[in-house]
Amino acid sequence: MICGYLIFFTTASAFESEMLLKTTKIHFKLVPTPREFSSDCGIAIYFEVESVATLQEKLDVSKIEYEIKLL
To answer: How far from each other are the two terminal CA atoms of the chain, in whole angstroms?
Structure first.
């Protein structure tokens, strides 16, 4: 299982991603952005997936700007 955070540049992107991921079987949780991952937005998404590519495909289709920080 691969764990990490999605870091966003705007709060709107974080909430849009949350709505998008609710339609998938990806395990995720909206959380405050960890201090070690600087961000313009104070909200991040913690995720656990089998393949990061699956997560990227979902977000890239909707043109959401994000960074992935793996743990």
So the answer is: 11
Cα–Cα dist 49/33, whole Å? 19
* Token pair of 47 as six digits: 């995720």
Contact 21, 68 (CB under 8 A): no
Q: In terms of DSSP bridges, do strands 27-32 and 66-70 run parallel, antiparallel, or are they unpaired? A: unpaired
Q: What is the pTM of this model?
A: 0.90
Instruction: Read off the pLDDT of residues 10-56 as tens digits, 9 standing for 90 and up.
Output: 999 999 999 999 998 899 999 999 988 875 678 999 999 999 998 99
CA–CA distance, 20 with 1 (Å, rounded to integer): 21
Residue 39 is predicted with a pLDDT of 59
Phi, psi of 47 (to 5 degrees): -135, 155
